[in-house]
Amino acid sequence: xxxxxxxLLASNAFENRTVLMxxxxxxxxxxILTALAKRGANIVLLxxxxxxxxxxxxxxxxxxxxxxxxxxxxxxxxxxxxVDDDVQxxxxxxxxxxxxxxILIHNASVINEAGTADLPLKRYDLxxxxxxxxxxxxxxxxxxxxxxxPNAQILSIAPPLNMxxxxxxxxxxxxxxxxxxxVLALGFAAEFADQNIASNCLWPETTIATAAVKNLQxxxxxxxxxxxxxxxxxxxxxxxxRPSSATGEVLIDAEVLKGAGVADLSVYxxxxxxxxxxxxxx
Length: 282
Description:
Blueprint: H1 5-8, E1 18-22, H2 27-38, E2 42-47, H3 60-69, E3 73-78, H4 84-98, E4 103-106, H5 121-146, E5 152-157, H6 165-170, H7 172-191, E6 197-203, H8 211-216, H9 230-240, E7 250-252, H10 253-259
Parallel strand pairs: 1-2, 1-4, 2-3, 4-5, 5-6, 6-7
Helix pairs in contact: 2-3, 2-9, 4-5, 5-7, 9-10
């Protein structure tokens, strides 16, 4: 028998479990939702992408269609994680449609790599509002329902707290917002430890060949040295299949997969040398 834990996960491993995700119209978020839906999960996604982006394929509507085509049940809620009413509506949709919330995934995120002198305050506020406040708001709204789940999970796409001066000085405003997500996730783990609610972070070891990398990067070769989003999807699936007692960790996708017996990560694509993601040191 294979010792690959991913292969051993039953096709119905997430049956009757409901997932609420911020974002998820494309890229890493959609890959995670599709992987969970294939294993029986009910999906609710809160995203702004009501109409197509001129350079990026996919909307909340096409994401729902893809998840359903993979065999899952899905509902899209068009809204903004910064808007309290939209957050409440997403939570209510999950509860009214599927009876509760078992898994909460903080995937929505805004990136701006400008330095301190060049970052407009409007963009600063956007990053903090989506990345940190949005994560807190959605957790707060979902908390009463997570508390009723027998194995509640919160998963945040947030990085290790690498305090190297290189990373601290590269783009402090973005780093603050992402590290803020990590601190919140670890804080939730400690705060909710006695409520059977796990809270962990997941971050990619390498860059990921999302549509944004393929279509918006100035370097057309960037996607060649990046893994496909499925590497994050498979790692997330493994994390979310654990008991809620496994909590308070900042996990790297490659390490999760290797620890689960996935020996060959070349199946996720990417030409050598692979480009490491932000906050990952060589």
